[in-house]
Amino acid sequence: MKKISRFIYLLLFLVCMPAAGESTAADDTVRIGASNMSPWGFLDKQNRESGLLIDFAQKFSAEVHIDHKNYLQPYPRVMHSLASGSVDLAVLFDGPHADNVAIRVGDVLVTEVFVVARASAEPISSFEQLAGMTVGYIRGSKYGEPFDSAPHFTRLPINTMRQGLAMVLSGRIDAMTSSNQAFYQATNAMQLNETQLRRLLVLKGVTGGLYMSRHSKLMNQLPFYRDALKKMDSQGTLKRIFSKPQASGTNFQ
């Protein structure tokens, strides 16, 4: 009886075991992390994934012929997921933190970071003139030195750009920090124009790249992915995704 039971268990094991070289759909799916803040990655009113990074992931996956799954996470969590290997790829803003957690595949975007205030605010010409102000920023975002550790103004973490701009307009905070993509998406949604906001200060230009986890099974595809990004750039695909026109009728200069 014991011999029959062992034979049955062995037979079931052999039937259920994948053939050599065969992998499950989950094994073949590339895991792509995306920051879950508008306009980068979010769920729309129909609970569908949307945003600039979702669009990029779709176009990139088509270019390199892979199936992918998006993982919407707070930006610090995306970096942690890359470091641990929980995701294979993600777009990060370039800097020491990104280099420490993953391998840079190639260029993806260029964005501008600036500070906006009510149109009635006094103009300023230097970073030091933010002294004494309360300046909002998107929770979890890093804008580099000197913004992230400046002692002469108060930084207030805010959940969304629309919330931040509304707080600026109502006088609850003095100013709001934003990338151009997040800013123009919010002003379009809120139907704002140049009579309501003023660009106080441009902090810097920021670049973003596609990064690969050092623990990813895709490491041998790195040269191919780098060539794919260059092709997407030369064909204008990246510019079409990330260079969105500013809100109609606005000129926040």
Characterize this entry briefly.
With 253 residues, the protein is of the alpha/beta class. 35% of the residues lie in helices and 28% in strands.
Structural class: alpha/beta
Based on DSSP secondary structure assignment, what is the total number of beta strands?
A: 10
Number of helices: 9
The oligomeric state is: single chain
- Biggest beta sheet attributes: 8 strands, mixed
Outline type: elongated
Helix content: 25-40%
* Strand neighbour order, sheet with most strands: 4-1-5-10-6-9-7-8
Global mean pLDDT: 85
Radius of gyration: 23 Å
Low-confidence stretches: 1-5, 7-25, 245-251
Order of helices and strands: HHEEEHEHEHEEEHEHEHH
Q: Measure the end-to-end span.
A: 85 Å
What portion of residues belong to β-strands? 25-35%
What features would you highlight for this structure?
253 residues; alpha/beta; two-stranded antiparallel ribbon; 10 strands; 28% strand; disordered C terminus
What does it look like?
The chain has 253 residues and is α/β, with parallel strands linked by helices. The protein contains 9 helices and 10 strands. The radius of gyration is 23 Å and the shape is elongated. It starts with a helix and ends in an 11-residue tail after the last helix.
